[in-house]
Amino acid sequence: MKFTAIIAIAPTRALATSSNGVNGKRLKRMPGFIAKHRKSLSILFLFILLFWLVTLQVKNGRLTFMEKPVLAISGFFERIMSWPFNTVASIGKGYILLVGTQQENQRLRSENERLQLENGVMNELLHENERLRDALDFKRTYPPSAVVAQVIGKQSSPVSSTVTLNKGSDHGIRKDMAVITAQGVVGKVQAVLPGTAKVLLLTDPGSTIAVRVMRNREEGLLEGKLVNCSLKYISYYVDIQEGDVLVTSGLDGIYPKGLAVASVVKVSKHEANAFQTVVAEPAVGLSRLEEALVLTK
Amino acid sequence: MKSLVYFAILLLIIPVQAVLLEPLSLGGIKPDLALALLYIIGLLTGPWEAALAGMAIGLVQDIGSASFIGFSGLTRGLIGLSAGLLGRRVLDLTSPSNSIFLAGVSLLEGIVIAFFLQMFYGSVPFFSLMAGRILPQALYTGVLGAMLLRLLGSKSVMSALMRRTVQREL
User: Fold this and answer.
1) Given phi > 0 = left and psi -120 to 50 = alpha, else beta, which region is A258?
2) B11 and A58 in contact by Cβ < 8 A?
3) Of A62, A178, A232, A294, which residue is most buried, by most CB within 10 angstroms?
4) Do the Cβ atoms of B32 and A156 come within 8 Å?
């Protein structure tokens, strides 16, 4: 006990003995300065700490510190809060919006017949494709299995775009699984817990998808830019036009080959640049997203 | 009591923003409740407390989203600090100028974010980001903040708050 007391007193004495010169005066004033501006200095220290944390992640990738506890808490409250909205919506869909059901039913019946016909043709082509693949000794591809999940929350952090799903690891969902709708790719699973999963949308700046231009099979990387996407590494000499559809190339190992991702809305090139600047709009209306399929295989 | 309020804000800010504000979404744009709350905290408390609150709210949002942890903490801490400093000048909570200041703060944060994205990810479509997200959200947040401040400044809320304070003191 005495020993610690001596250690604690020692710096004060040293400060007192060195307080004669100019440097000593400055040293004597320091504790007073720190005590006076304690709040400002601690806030400044915290700002520096946060800045350091960001620069660290720029170098080494995003930290996943506390991600699961925060997802567990927010997912829990999101499920509770979204319940009344979903109930009202389902009542609305079930009872109130019955107007025009007969016409819609007829339209859907005719569409169903058309799709059945198309499906028959597709099945024929699939079998033919499989036979040819077998004959050529190609690797067989299997249709992916999927879990349907409901979007219960849409985060609007200023720097990122994510959504929360109401299904998680208890339904076979794992990290980095592809999330799609009938229209195309939505994004990939970023974090997962039992009963909830966080999906990184394709418009998030951290999202990158290996894609191919459907028309001419040119490859590139589609990066998220918050409001839309940008197709990278498209050479100056490549023929790419507005309206071109981009599909997954399957090279990233996350998304199966051939899913619609986005369509090109703007192309600009300059002789000084080796690559073209290509802006693309996602195929899926992400602001109206209500349900999604998670590809579990 | 104050710590309980802060705890509730930190606990509920992500789900409230993600679920309860969704019906208010116009073309995918939602008002930034966290920013509006932070501005109000700044006006009601002071720069240091608001800066700390901003850092905490920003950190929770960073962890809950996919952005770099600490980035929103940094920007929101600065917003809290400036709102607190502004609070020393702006005395009337119901003043319409608050809405302009809040929209301005939101706009400034959006521009900082755009520059950050440009720096670390490159080729950010600045004008479409500005027109499609930053500016509408700033205006929407300004309106929401003004409504919240009007609610806080209304006589019934103020008298209820005063009554509770008096009861506690008794």
Assistant:
1) left
2) no
3) A294
4) yes
Q: By three-state DSSP, how is residue A229 classified? A: strand
Position A223 scores a pLDDT of 92
User: 3-state DSSP call for residue A165?
Assistant: strand
**Angle at alpha carbon of residue B47, lines to B51 and B113, rounded to 5°:** 45
Q: What is the pLDDT of residue A187?
A: 95
E strand or H helix that includes residue A263: strand A260-268
Q: Nearest by CB to B70, which of A54, A153, A198?
A: A54
Nearest CA in chain B to A72: B64
Cβ pair B48:A39 closer than 8 A = yes
Of B67, B113, B128, the CB nearest to A227: B128
Per-residue model confidence (pLDDT) at position A8: 43
Q: Count of CB atoms within 10 A of residue A95's CB?
A: 8
A220 and A243 in contact (C-beta within 8 Å)? no
Task: Identify whether the C-beta of residue A173 lies closer than 8 Å to the C-beta of residue A198.
Answer: no
pLDDT at A68: 85
Q: How buried is residue A167: exposed, middle or buried, by Cβ count under 10 Å (0-12/13-18/19+)?
A: buried
The per-residue pLDDT for range A116-167, each reduced to its tens digit, is 888 888 888 888 888 888 787 766 666 678 899 999 988 867 788 899 999 9
* Burial bucket for residue A76 (CB in 10 Å: 0-12, 13-18, 19+): middle
Distance, CA of B83 to CA of B37 (rounded, Å)? 11
Which of helix, strand or coil describes residue B121? coil
Residues 6 or more apart whose CB falls under 8 angstroms from that of A239 comprise A216, A218
The residue whose two tokens read 């999963």 is A197
Which pLDDT value is given to residue A252? Answer: 87
Q: Which amino acid is at A55?
A: T
pLDDT of residue A12: 45
Which helix (H) or strand (E) segment is A219 a member of?
A: strand A219-224
Contacts of residue B18 in chain A, CB cutoff 8 Å? 74, 78, 152-156, 164
Taking an 8 Å cut-off on Cβ atoms, the answer to whether B66 and A158 are in contact is: no
Residues 6 or more apart whose Cβ sits within 8 Å of residue B13: B33, B34, B37, B57, B60, B61
Which pLDDT band, with edges at 50, 70 and 90, does A14 fall under?
Answer: very low
Report d(CA B10, CA B8) in Å as an integer.
Answer: 6
